[in-house]
Amino acid sequence: MNTQLFEQVDFVENPVYEQVITSLLDQKYAIVDDFFNTEEIEELRESLKTVYEADCFKKAAIGNKFNEEIDTTIRGDFIKWINEAEGRAEERLFFTKINDLVAYLNRTCFLGILQKEFHYAVYPKGTFYKRHLDTFQNDSRRKLSMVCYLNDASWLATNGGELTLYLPDETGEQALDIIPRPGRVVIFESQILEHEVKPVLNSERLSITGWLKTR
């Protein structure tokens, strides 16, 4: 029996994922405003708030697990790692969607993504994350960085907290400011694009941030 033929017949093109792939190929980043629906975003936001109010977050560090260091002059967010197997129901639904994306990328683009890591992130007023690259000298497994914004519908652009991507071009580079609108997902190449989180001027900036990793 030709199993390859059946695999081809079963494949269904996903327009949102195709948009992600096209954008990554063309410009090394993708911005998607309908990756999660409104109800899913609201559930994830409430899950984050519940965990945050239970004082389960910790001050985010710089570096990897072998040389972590807390430096508030570089980053000031608070994080809580989320676990696919042991997480809340809302978090498991989040990972279901991420796993579907990973399977699609591996099948269509042969990226070889085998691992993932995600955490909640809260940036209180006045905090930021200075310009950096999402990879380490002794660990280059991060392939794609991903941010899903969980701010509520009342979030204003004047609140700050933009994600700034530094895009190489013929003249050197171009800075792209991305407003953390609720439900917006940003995906970009971890080893290529330097980026920063601009200071939060009002309210709290809420998100899930993570990485899709090769072996």
TrEMBL record:
Coiled-coil intervals: none
Domain Fe2OG dioxygenase residue range list: 109-214
Superkingdom assignment: Bacteria
GO BP of this protein: cellular response to hypoxia
Cofactor: L-ascorbate
Cross-referenced Pfam families: 2OG-FeII_Oxy_3 (PF13640)
Keywords: Dioxygenase, Iron, Metal-binding, Oxidoreductase, Vitamin C
Single GO MF descriptor: ferrous iron binding
The name this protein goes by in its record: SM-20-related protein
